[in-house]
Amino acid sequence: MTHHRRGLRRLLGDDDLATSIEADWRSAPLSDRRRAMLGFATRLTVAPGAVAKADLVPLREAGFTDRDILDIVEVAAYYAYVNRIADGLGVVPESWILEDA
Predict the structure, then answer these.
(1) Which residues, 6+ apart, have CB-to-CB distance to 76 below 8 Å?
(2) What is the C-alpha to C-alpha distance for residues 4 and 14, in angstroms, rounded to an integer?
């Protein structure tokens, strides 16, 4: 999604890192903390019914607090929800969103 790409680039302030994450976050030059977060968010997105307490261990080992984990879950869930609404309704991005990809 183009508008997500733009937000990631702005947040990171590093176009090369954003491109690397977009291509394959698993091989991008990320900290162990970010890898733990992205691994959990990916599992929650791909197989939400399979997530178990054991999946929280890498997050806690990476230093995430219960509040941090709640934030990760809420953001992943929100994006899944919004994207399914948009996809289900056939929403097409506004032309201005595509301008600065």
Answers:
(1) 41, 44, 45
(2) 15
Which amino acid, 60? R
Amino acid identity, position 23: A
101 membership: H or E segment, kind and range: none
pTM for the model: 0.81
Give the model confidence (pLDDT) of 47-90 as tens digits: 999 999 999 999 999 999 999 999 999 999 998 999 899 889 99
DSSP calls for the chain: -HHHHHHHHHHHT-HHHHHHHHHHGGGS---HHHHHHHHHHHHHHH-GGG--GGGGHHHHHTT--HHHHHHHHHHHHHHHHHHHHHHHHT----HHHHHT-
